[in-house]
Amino acid sequence: MPTGAGSSPTFPALGIGMDSCVIPLRHGGLSLVQTTDFFYPLVEDPYMMGRIACANVLSDLYAMGITECDNMLMLLSVSQSMSEEEREKVTPLMVKGFRDAAEEGGTAVTGGQTVVNPWIIIGGAATVVCQPNEFIMPDSAVVGDVLVLTKPLGTQVAVNAHQWLDNPERWNKVKMVVSREEVELAYQEAMFNMATLNRTAAGLMHTFNAHAATDITGFGILGHSQNLAKQQRNEVSFVIHNLPIIAKMAAVSKASGRFGLLQGTSAETSGGLLICLPREQAARFCSEIKSSKYGEGHQAWIVGIVEKGNRTARIIDKPRVIEVLPRGATAAALAPDSSNASSEPSS
User: Which H/E stretch holds residue 279?
Assistant: First the structure.
C-alpha cells in the first residue's frame, strides 16, 4: 500500500490508487483527506446532472467512512457549441444542483474554475481535515467478512437504454426484453440513485465496525472490488455471489451485447459503497440503512464474502441477479427474489 514518508501506524497515509488521498499534516495529529472527480453529462436534466456530479465527488470521502466535508470547489466547463440562450438556461441549473447536493452533504462550494470547452464538463474537489478516528482506512478486511453494496448496479445501462428510445437501430436489439415504460422507470431510478449521497452509509460504517470500503464507479463492481482487494493487509480475496441490478437492465445488457453488467465490468456513475463488514453485523447494517429516520431511498444488499486468498476479487460463474424494482413501478412487476435483500450468500 502506498504510504507517505511521514506515515506511521498512528498516522496512516494513502496515496494514488484508492478513493481519496490521506496526507498526515504537520500539526496536531491531523490528516488532510482530498479527492477530485469530473465527467460529462449523462442525464438530460441539468439540475440533476449537477447533483449527481457533486454526489460523485463526495462519494470518495464517504468510501473512507468520512461524513463531513470542509470545503468543495466546483470544476465547470461550458460547451462552445451551445447558444447563449442554452448556456444561460443550462449552466445555472447545473450549478444549483451541485450546490444543493453540497449543502445536503453539510458543506458549501467556495470557489472553483469555469472554462469554455468543446464539451460540457462538471465536477469538483472535496477537502476535509480529519482526526484518525474519523476515517476508516480501506485495508482491514478479514476472512469471514461479508460484502455489502448500498446502491443497485445498472446505471450506465439504464442511461444508454434511455438514449436508445430515439435510436431505432439500437432499440430494435433490446425491445424484445424490455418495454419503453420499463426503460423510462429504470432511467428515473438510475438518476435518483446517482444523485443520492452515500453519507448515511459512511456514518453506519463506524456504527457497524466496517473493515474496508470503496465506491463503485467507472471500473464496475468487479474492477473496484479487485482494486480494494489489492489494498488489504491480510491475505484475503473477495467473492461476489449476488448482483442487485435495476430491474430489466441485466436483460438489456445481455441483449445489447454491451456493458458486461453480469460480468461486473459495466461502468457505474455515483454508485454505492461496497463495504467489508463483520459477518454478524452485515444484516443489521442492511436493515438499519433502510430505516425511515435516514429519509427515503437508502438500500443495501449482501453481495459476497471475504475468504482466504491472494488479494483478488471475482464474481461466481452464475451470480444471483436481484432485480431491484424502480420506485415508480407497480408491485406486480416485482421479481420473486428481489425482496430477499439481506440473505447471506453461501460460500
Answer: helix 279-289
